[in-house]
Amino acid sequence: MRRSGDQTKAAILSAARERFAADGYERATIRSIAADAATDPALVMRHFGNKEKLFAAAADFDLHLPDLSTLPRDKLGAALVDHFLRRWEEDDTLQALLRAAVTNEAAAERMRQIFTSQLAVAAKGLADDAEVRASLVASQTLGLGLCRYVLKLGPVAEMRRAAVVAWLAPTIERYLTAPDPTA
Q: Under CATH, which number does the domain 68-177 receive?
């Protein structure tokens, strides 16, 4: 049965997400992604142009951040840490992007775009310097993702979710709500 152009594109994106998650950016190939999608590598190139553009399309996702304006200030940290734990665990694309961002500038730029724009928007209204605060939150959540899910660093990788939330929530909350210590 023949697939439409949209179906082929969707199959390629799905295969790319899985392949990038399994192999990382550097080892994933257009040929392997095409084979996984049961299509020709030329179709992958026709739809996406090159591996970098395919990766950007495959890594295009929403962090689905909670509306922080609806949460009590003393629950912000716990809500965000719990949210990011869920995102790291439920979406291989985020892990693949983090793995690739360590060695590939295009992936690093995509990670910066996702975290800077989406976290800054979520933090708006909490403080005047939302971008600074969003960057600090990103430093913790990306560090958590790297240590827990990519490097699988001992105790952090083995901790119960509730313990991770309890440890990191106060730091995230402080980043979002504390007075600027440099002011």
A: 1.10.357.10
Residue 118 contacts residue 62 (beta carbons within 8 Å): yes
Tokens of 109: 């730029």
pTM of the predicted protein model: 0.77
Query: Residue type for 51, please?
Result: K
Spatial distance between the Cα atoms of 159 and 96, rounded to a whole number of angstroms: 22
Query: What are 127's strand-pairing partners?
Result: 124
* pLDDT at residue 1, as a whole number: 64
CATH superfamily of 5-58: Homeodomain-like (1.10.10.60)
Q: Match 């734990």 to its residue by tokens.
A: 85
Between the alpha carbon of residue 1 and those of residues 36, 38, 98, the distances in Å are 17, 12, 36
**Facing residues of 124 across strands?**
127
